[in-house]
Amino acid sequence: MDVILSKLFASVGDELHVLDCMAYLMILMAACTFITLLFENVPYGRYATSRYGFPVNVKFAWFVQELPAFLVPLCLVLGTSASKTTHLPNRLLLAIYFCHYTQRSLIYPFLIRGGKSTPFASFALAFVFCVYNGYMQVRYLSHYADYPADWVTSPYFITGSLLWLVGWLVNIHSDHILRNLRKSGETGYRIPQGGLFEYVSGANFFGEITEWAGFALAGQSVQGVSFFIFTLSVLASRAFAHHRWYLQKFEDYPKSRKALVPFIL
Q1: Domain of residue 218, residue span
Q2: Listed residue (128, 2, 22, 156) closest to 65, CA to CA
Q3: Are 215 and 228 in contact (CB under 8 A)?
Q4: In a domain, 254, yes or no
Q5: Measured on CA atoms in the order 33, 172, 61, 43, is the torsion positive or negative?
Q6: Distance between CA 255 and CA 10 in Å, rounded?
Q7: Does 11 or 25 have the greater pLDDT score?
Q8: pLDDT tens, 12-67?
Q9: Residues 142, 76: contact at Cβ < 8 Å?
């Protein structure tokens, strides 16, 4: 793989410049996505529609679309001379990334119960994003990110890592609550109860946004920041859409709940 990449990039500086450009492009995509989602819900789950292509089985879609976010980085770390992986800060940031996507791509899809099929357009866009972002994040961390030896004891790294851990646990617990809303054989929707759902409609989204905010803080790179901004633009929109939907669907939906941020928003 090193041979292939070396042919694509004439020098180290060239690829690092490309990785930076990819990050700025992701921020631009986040802005465009945010504006688009002011007028249109993300077409998946309860908002799925045939306008966005033929339906793809939800378990298959989740597994295949998320898998590149795990496999592409794995190839970059194992199949190339990833010189920066000998440094502790880089190793820990890579571990944070892989911890999330091991669960998201290899475990989560097989825990899904029921669920509506995913329109092909949503599936394809998610697949492309996972390839793009997986390459950008892990290529930077494994080959170019340069941290001082004591970075792991810095306030940025410690605070960011703890923030990531809290978000990761909230995300996993919230997904568990959502999976168990229906009993075997039941259909339809129910009001989520327990955990952070007592305070917000988008507890799972809040958890994932918090994860990548922590990752960006711990790594202090434009690549990490761009991922956080993109995640925020998409998942905040989903949280507000879900909140509006719950309020319209259920007369007894708790009026004290916020959409995304407890007690605030």
Answers
A1: 2-249
A2: 128
A3: yes
A4: no
A5: negative
A6: 58
A7: 25
A8: 568 899 999 999 999 999 999 888 888 776 666 666 566 667 888 888 999 999 99
A9: yes
CA distances from 115 to 55, 63, 78 (A): 12, 14, 35
3-class SS letters over 184-211: CCCCCCCCCCCHHHHCECCHHHHHHHHH
Distance CA 46, CA 253 (A): 18
* CB contact at 8 A, 230 and 189: no
Distance in angstroms between the alpha carbons of the first and the last residue of the chain: 46
**The residue count for the chain:** 265
- Whether 262 is in a domain gets the answer no
Q: How confident is the model at residue 154, as a pLDDT?
A: 96
Residue 94 has pLDDT above 80, yes or no: yes
- Average pLDDT on 238-247 reads 91
Asked whether residue 140 is assigned to any structural domain, the reply reads yes
User: Could you tell me which residues are beta bridge partners of residue 258?
Assistant: 200
CA neighbor of 147 nearest in space, from 95, 100, 92: 92
More confident call, 132 vs 118: 132
Question: Which pLDDT score, from 0 to 100, does residue 115 have?
Answer: 72
Taking 3-state DSSP, the helix, strand and coil percentages for the chain, each rounded to the nearest 5, stand at 70, 0, 30
pLDDT tens digits for 175-208? 999 988 877 666 678 889 999 999 999 999 999 9
pTM of the model: 0.89
Question: How far is the C-alpha of 100 from the C-alpha of 165, rounded, in Å?
Answer: 10
Q: How many domains does the chain have?
A: 1
* Whole-angstrom distance, CA of residue 30 vs CA of residue 26: 6
Residue 265 lies in a domain: no
